[in-house]
């Protein structure tokens, strides 16, 4: 066995929703892991070293790489737009932090970086599945920071294998954030609102499927960009209806008129009254599906769950743990329920 095979892996953002699931899988497969995150890591293991720290701190990042000589970096750390009001903090974390990680990795002989990018690189319906060679056109700061992160990492492909995986919404047990608003409506038997009929199709990715892709990508012999997502994407009406039937609540799917609803969403966001930003209010009534042909061929990867199945897992967790979720503090944005803001008015009439 080579010395490299004994080297640990680094998971940035390893205390977050997806990062923590990835860490658990890596540990189960015998890896030694180091986590760096702004939030405390809840996972405990003899082969896990958890650092509460900031990837914007170049000195700290360099010290970690010098000490551990990481084989692979799974770069999951990111600040979400609805989680903070400080735009400079988001940009510095998602872009400058990414450069700090890449610079240290290149200097210290790391073999590969697997970077979680986003479908927020686009905010329009192209009328077909989006391919890797389609030019990104993000409309809000989170998507812009992810696109800039990809471009930063592209500067290091002469020294590192850089694999960027463009992800739609990641779903599994424990996923909350904005989804918690939907789950609350279903659990309480209220109307679940779609816009413009809800016949649009919006792709998700099951966290365990994404983990499998990340682990395979770490062994990929080169640099590449891959789209990822579920197959056979259902409409919002079908997905919500499926979860409601399984939940057995009195919730129903109801539709809001497209144009006035989108106008109201834009206005509410501009006034600071809504957690739904430009990406959400542009795409809430549109189709968005990635073409996943490339990753299936290159990594021999396949998704295992549909949108309906993975959303049911997330809803069931919410329903069974609602009191504990409400009491959560000092956790990442996806591990707690998002503030409803003006959406609470819609709940009152539902």
Describe it.
This protein is globular. Helix 2 (17-28) packs across helix 7. The mean pLDDT is 91. It has 2 domains: 3-171 and 203-227, Rossmann fold; 179-201 and 234-287 and 307-348, no CATH class. Strands 3-2-1-4-5-6-10 form a 7-stranded parallel beta sheet, sandwiched between helices. A two-stranded parallel ribbon has the order 7-9. The chain has a two-stranded parallel sheet with strand order 8-11. Helix content is 41%, strand content 15%. The chain is α/β, with parallel strands linked by helices and 350 residues long. Helix 2 links the parallel strand 1 (9-12) and strand 2 (33-37).
Question: What is the topological layout?
Answer:
Elements: H1 3-6, E1 9-12, H2 17-28, E2 33-37, E3 48-52, H3 58-68, E4 72-75, H4 87-107, E5 112-118, H5 141-154, E6 161-167, E7 169-171, H6 179-187, E8 191-195, E9 204-206, H7 207-217, E10 224-227, H8 236-247, E11 252-256, H9 258-270, H10 278-283, H11 293-299, H12 307-320, H13 322-326, H14 343-348
Parallel strand pairs: 1-2, 1-4, 2-3, 4-5, 5-6, 6-10, 7-9, 8-11
Helix pairs in contact: 2-7, 3-4, 4-5, 8-12
Number of helices: 14
Largest sheet: 7 strands, parallel
Query: What is the topology, as strand order, of the major beta sheet?
Result: 3-2-1-4-5-6-10
CATH class of the largest domain: Alpha Beta
């Amino acid at each position: 066995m080579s010395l490299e095979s004994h080297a640990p892996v680094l998971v940035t953002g390893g205390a977050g929703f997806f990062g923590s699931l990835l860490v658990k899988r890596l540990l189960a497969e015998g890896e030694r892991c180091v986590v760096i995150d702004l939030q405390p890591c809840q996972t405990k293991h003899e082969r896990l070293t958890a650092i509460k720290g900031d990837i914007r701190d170049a000195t700290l990042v360099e010290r970690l790489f010098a000490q551990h000589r990481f084989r692979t970096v799974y770069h999951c750390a990111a600040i979400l737009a609805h989680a903070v009001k400080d735009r400079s903090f988001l940009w510095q974390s998602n872009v400058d932090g990414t450069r700090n990680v890449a610079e240290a990795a290149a200097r210290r002989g790391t073999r590969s970086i697997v970077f979680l990018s986003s479908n927020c690189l686009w905010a329009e319906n192209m009328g077909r599945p989006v391919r890797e060679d389609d030019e990104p056109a993000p409309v809000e700061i989170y998507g812009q920071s992810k696109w800039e992160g990809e471009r930063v990492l592209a500067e290091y492909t002469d020294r590192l294998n850089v694999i960027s995986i463009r992800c739609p919404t990641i779903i599994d047990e424990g996923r909350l954030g904005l989804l918690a608003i939907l789950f609350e409506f279903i659990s309480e038997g209220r109307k679940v609102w779609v816009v413009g009929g809800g016949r649009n199709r919006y792709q998700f990715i099951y966290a365990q499927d994404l983990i499998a892709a990340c682990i395979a990508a770490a062994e990929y012999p080169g640099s590449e960009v891959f789209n990822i997502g579920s197959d056979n994407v259902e409409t919002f009406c079908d997905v919500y209806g499926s979860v409601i039937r399984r939940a057995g609540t009195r919730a129903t799917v109801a539709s809001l008129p497209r144009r006035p609803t989108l106008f109201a969403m834009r206005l509410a966001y501009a006034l600071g009254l809504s957690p739904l930003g430009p990406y959400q209010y542009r795409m809430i009534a549109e189709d968005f599906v990635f073409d996943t042909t490339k990753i299936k061929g290159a990594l021999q990867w396949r998704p295992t769950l549909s949108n309906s199945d993975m959303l049911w897992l997330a809803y069931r967790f919410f329903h069974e743990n609602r009191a504990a979720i409400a009491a959560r503090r000092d956790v990442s944005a996806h591990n707690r329920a998002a503030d409803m803001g003006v959406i609470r008015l819609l709940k009152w009439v539902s």
